[in-house]
Design goal:
The chain is of the alpha+beta class. 41% of the residues lie in helices and 23% in strands.
Amino acid sequence: MTPSTRKFLFGSALVVSAGLCTGLVAYYSGALPGRAPRTEFSYIPADVSAVAFADVRDIMDSEFSQRVRDAVPTGAEKSRLLAETGIDVERDIDTVLAGISGDGPGGPLVVMRGRFDVSRIEALAVQHGARQEQYGGRSMLVGLSAQAAPQAPAEGYVPSLAFLDDGLLAIGDAGALRKAIDVAASGQDLATNPDMMRFVAGVQGSGNAWLVGRADQVARQPQVPEQFRSQIEAINWVAISADIDRDVRGMIRAEARDEESGQQLRTMVAGALAAARMFGEQDARLAAILGAVQASGAGRNVELSFTVSPTVLDLIKTAAHPPTPALPEPVVP
């Protein structure tokens, strides 16, 4: 399975459980409410292939987030965002809602709610080469520094920023931002996609981070090996949610195209878990993680529930930063 496939179908579990603790995944990895206001949804087009949410404020204030910072020191992306736009993730952003399209170079459309110093953002963006323009009654900064792009810029990608409303800011490709403004004006937003909203309704309120996506978009990517394409094509939808507090409790749900595919998927998942647990018996960290994963489901559905406890994170922290062995005492002649 290619890195991009793993990222969409399985790596998203780590995105919502750990990466979103930095509050930056939805912007820089192009990955992330339980309580999303209607205004954010009104800018997400109905034809997106995935949508993700993170209650950044709730996550950043959690005990688990503090442990993640200690275990996995980060900050380069956060510092870069602050330097180039004046946006401080830890202080300025409350929630992030991202719409991700499966086709084309546009990348994710990220809508952030929080407290933004408009004058400072404009001054820094212009300093880094952006130009100001008006579109649909909104102010935009077009052509941000390439270093501020959510991903390596593809041909035609123009990283930009738009002030949608008081306390509401969007980042993405210039074309995607203009489309978002048009979508809000026309009313043809995410709420008009009943299939997507069926899964969004299922994860809203289940935690402070979630992702819903169409798996068939992954199968269409040319880099997906043929031997995995048929397995992915058997899945219609993937929904992931996590509640990040003292620990992380999450759920991954896949809906297959029919009951036969659902049964095959459950069998495959059960076999993979059994094999992983067998090989993980010699590693306390892996055994602790896999021991908290439970598989279930019926009909077209398969579900994986998982828990990442403070104890597991401490095991990971110890492995990442083993204690320095004490030097032997010098021998006195």
